[in-house]
Amino acid sequence: MHSVGIEKISFYTPPFYLNLSTLAEQRGQDPEKFRRGLGQEKMSQPAPDEDIITMAVKAADVILSETDKASIETILFATESGVDQSKSAGLYAHQLLQMPETCRIVEVKQACYAATAALQLAAGMIAWRPGKKVLILASDVARYDLDSPGEATQGAGAVALLVSHDPKIAELEWGCGLHSEGIHDFWRPNHRSTPLVDGKFSTKAYLNSLKFSWQGYFTETQRALTDHQWLCYHTPFCGMARKAHRELLHIHDLAPDTIELAPTLAYNREIGNAYTASLYLSLISLLETTEVDLSGQRVGCFSYGSGATGEFFSLKIQPGYQTHLPTAYHRKMLSDRQALDFATYQDWHEQGTARSEEDFVTPELTAGYPRFTGVTGQARCYK
Ligand code: COA
Question: Is the pTM of this model over 0.85?
Answer without folding.
Answer: yes
